[in-house]
């Protein structure tokens, strides 16, 4: 079994089930929805993830974007039939066209380099527009931040709606715009600079950028339903 | 505001929790490695689990 197959097998969709949503609350609907999504992603993996066969960068980011942004993909499947293979291959073509921009930012660190407001805003909006076009016509700031981050992990921070709300960046239901993302970059940079002595050590120790490590902390504290993970302690199994 | 030691402990503790409860679903290292080393051809996702 490959790493990607194992990831897919272990992926627990139920953690992302929204019981406030009437459609998802229905057991039959939920089972059907999650099976459809996972089966289609499984086919994407089976058809494309072969050694030396496909170098489309959209496929390289597919497991990450799919699993880390499952809430959005769930909505795509609920709204219409979406072809994941088409989605990620088209995304790959777009991303390859942005290689020079990613390389420019990949050399930079948020903590020590200037924030390039103009270039960041432009790139954020271009990625958001592409995800909007490939998705269901909605803005995709969370997916945009994930893509920006994976191509320049020391410069672009991650953020999702729950985290944005918890840190005070947005009010409940307020979308993360390019300007708010820039505001987040400014605030995070200012905050992290207080801990500059610890950052190098932590990054070296964990082999991740401080931006990823901070996101893990925010994710644990504000995003994932940790209650759903209690079962994994195995107390009643 | 966390002091410097608290910040370090927060990062370490969060990372440990994340690794235990989210790590098995975490495709981040695959994407990170895939981009760094030349997309899918050398991506970790192609290696067999041991």
What does this 3D model show about the protein?
The complex is a heterodimer of chains A (237) and B (50). With 237 residues, chain A is mainly alpha-helical. Chain A has helices at 3-10, 22-25, 27-48, 57-68, 70-79, 84-96, 99-106, 117-134, 141-151, 161-167, 178-192, 196-206, 210-223, 226-229. In chain A, α6 (84-96) packs antiparallel against α8 (117-134). Chain A starts with a helix and ends in an 8-residue tail after the last helix. The mean pLDDT of chain A is 90. Chain B is mainly α. Chain B contains two helices and no strands. Chain B has helices at 4-21, 28-36. The model of chain B is unreliable at 38-50 (pLDDT under 50). The chains are: A mainly alpha (237), B mainly alpha (50).
Principal-axis shape of chain A equals globular
The run of helices and strands of chain A is HHHHHHHHHHHHHH
Largest sheet of chain B: none
Helix % of chain B is: 40-55%
- Multimer state: heterodimer
Q: Could you provide a short overview of the structure?
A:
Chain A has 237 residues and is an all-alpha fold. Chain A is built from 14 helices and no strands.
Secondary structure: elements and pairs:
The complex is a heterodimer of chains A (237) and B (50).
Chain A: H1 3-10, H2 22-25, H3 27-48, H4 57-68, H5 70-79, H6 84-96, H7 99-106, H8 117-134, H9 141-151, H10 161-167, H11 178-192, H12 196-206, H13 210-223, H14 226-229
Chain B: H1 4-21, H2 28-36
Descriptive keywords:
heterodimer; A: 237 residues; mainly alpha; 14 helices; 66% helix; globular; B: 50 residues; 2 helices; disordered C terminus
């Amino acid at each position: 079994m490959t790493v990607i197959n194992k990831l897919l097998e272990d992926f627990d969709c139920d953690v992302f089930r929204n019981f406030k949503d009437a459609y998802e609350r229905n057991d039959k609907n939920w089972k059907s929805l999650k099976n459809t999504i996972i089966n289609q992603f499984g086919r994407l993996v089976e058809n494309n993830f072969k050694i030396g066969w496909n170098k489309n960068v959209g496929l390289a980011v597919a497991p990450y974007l799919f699993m880390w942004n499952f809430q959005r993909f769930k909505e795509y499947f609920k709204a219409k039939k979406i072809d994941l293979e088409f989605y990620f291959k088209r995304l790959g073509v777009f991303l390859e066209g942005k290689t020079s921009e990613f390389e420019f930012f990949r050399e930079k660190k948020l903590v020590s380099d200037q924030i390039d407001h103009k270039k960041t805003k432009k790139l954020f909006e271009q990625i958001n527009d592409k995800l909007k076009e490939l998705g269901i016509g909605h803005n995709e700031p969370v997916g945009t931040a994930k893509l920006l981050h994976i191509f320049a992990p020391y410069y672009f921070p991650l953020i999702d709606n729950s985290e944005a709300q918890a840190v005070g960046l947005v009010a409940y239901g307020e979308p993360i715009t390019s300007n708010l993302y820039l505001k987040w970059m400014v605030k995070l940079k200012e905050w992290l600079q207080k801990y500059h002595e610890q950052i190098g050590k932590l990054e070296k120790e964990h082999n991740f950028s401080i931006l990823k490590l901070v996101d893990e902390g925010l994710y644990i504290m504000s995003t994932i339903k940790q209650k759903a993970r209690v079962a994994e302690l195995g107390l009643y199994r | 505001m966390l002091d410097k030691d608290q910040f370090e402990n927060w990062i370490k503790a969060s990372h440990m929790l994340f690794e235990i409860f989210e790590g098995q679903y975490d495709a981040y290292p695959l994407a990170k490695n895939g981009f760094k080393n030349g997309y899918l051809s050398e991506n970790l996702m192609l290696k067999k689990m041991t």
